[in-house]
Amino acid sequence: MFWQGRELEDFSSSEWEQLCDGCAKCCLNKLEDEDTEAVVFTRVACRLLDSENCRCTDYDKRHGLVPNCIQVTPAMARSALWLPDSCAYRLVAQGRDLPHWHPLLTGDINSTVAAGESVSGRVLSEEYVHPDGLDEHIITWVSV
Ligand code: SF4
Ligand code: SF4
Questions:
Q1: 57 C-alpha to center of ligand 2: Å?
Q2: Which of 35, 80, 115, 131 lies at 20 to 30 Å from 100 by C-alpha?
Q3: In terms of Cα–Cα distance, which of 13, 38, 21, 8 is closest to 106?
Q4: Closest atom, ligand 2, to C-alpha of 48
Q5: Is the distance from CB of 141 to CB of 85 less than 8 angstroms?
Q6: Where are the domains of the chain?
Q7: Where are the alpha helices (DSSP H) in the chain?
Q8: pLDDT confidence tier of residue 34, bands split at 50, 70 and 90
Q9: How confident is the model at residue 144 (pLDDT cuts 50, 70, 90)?
Q10: pLDDT-derived band at 142, boundaries 50, 70, 90
């Protein structure tokens, strides 16, 4: 299992990509408290997200189309407390096991959605929500 017992910086780009479980939780709009800097998620998804199968509809051009699209880095995996507890990058950074539904363990790229561990069916597109109304859609994750 290539993700165990290694420094995050030693992963190849292909290995790093495979580590993502495809939950799409990081594709949701977030709000930050100006005073405390605490970050909360909303159920409002990026306009490029296919919210049923949790795929980015323009993955190759995503950073040009969505400037705040997140590229998780090793440093972020270690320190970004706002990443969901279930995020595979966080788990590996903490030396924890991947959950049994992770595609790297199931061999099925759709297993995160099938296990009910993604945002599939639970979100709405930002195309339908005014930015000033994001705070009406704040959610919390259930920890793994
Ligand atoms: S939260 Fe983590 S595991 Fe889930 S899609 Fe984002 S980067 Fe991938
Ligand atoms: S551009 Fe694609 S990968 Fe980036 S946040 Fe939007 S849906 Fe997710």
A1: 8
A2: 80
A3: 21
A4: 7
A5: yes
A6: 8-139
A7: 13-19, 62-65, 74-79, 88-93, 103-106, 111-114
A8: confident
A9: very low
A10: low
Q: Cβ contacts of residue 60 below 8 Å, gap of 6+?
A: none
Nearest atom, ligand 2, residue 63 CA:
1
- Angle among Cα 29, 33, 37 to the nearest 5 degrees reads 100
List, in order, residues 6 or more apart from 38 with CB less than 8 Å away.
32
Reduce the DSSP state of residue 22 to 3 states and report it: coil
More confident residue, 80 or 108: 108
Q: Is the CB of 84 under 6 A from ligand 1?
A: yes
pLDDT of residue 39: 87
pLDDT of residue 57: 97
Q: Is the CB of 46 within 6 Å of ligand 2?
A: yes
Residue 85 to residue 72: CA distance in whole angstroms: 14
Spacing, Cα 69 to ligand 2 middle (Å):
5
Where on the phi/psi map is residue 86: left (φ > 0), alpha (ψ -120 to 50), or beta?
alpha
Q: 127 phi and psi, to 5 degrees? A: -65, -20
Q: How many residues does the chain have?
A: 144
pLDDT at 43 over 70: yes
Measured CA to CA, the distance from residue 52 to residue 28 in angstroms comes to 14
